[in-house]
């Protein structure tokens, strides 16, 4: 931050800005983060935990961690990647502690991540069924391939961002993504009777 804030008609030293004003600006920035990234973080958490309540708890915990470190928010280069990494680590920690993965066949749980506008009830039901089918096939992938596919396809992160989140090289991300896509193509092309 510069030594002073320059306006066309005057300069204001940072020390002249009231602490309450600075805190209010930080709170507004945090509220904007929650509004902008909460749906993305929920999808990441739900894709791993497969439980709406646990996913919501993970997102809440992620934002509590951000709240504790809000003074360093300005130093973060890519807030989206930073937040996804936080929630990713939280959900992986929870899975390690639980040692089990609760599964759901409840289509209503999946409706939270499906677009609902402009679709008829039949189209929404068909989309939810297809979405459930794709998620079931994604669950059959090996864990490493599943991780990169979820972050790439569902969260639309780049290979650089995925490498940062998972702590692996970009070439590893691309290799895993290639394998995941090929496996998914094979799984989705199988006749329905073989499933």
From TrEMBL:
Keyword annotations of the record: DNA-binding, Sigma factor, Transcription, Transcription regulation
Record domain RNA polymerase sigma factor 70 region 4 type: where: 134-182
UniProt record, GO biological process: DNA-templated transcription initiation
Domain (RNA polymerase sigma-70 region): residue spans on this chain: 33-99
Top-level taxon in the UniProt lineage: Bacteria
Protein family: Belongs to the sigma-70 factor family. ECF subfamily.
Stated name of the protein: RNA polymerase sigma factor
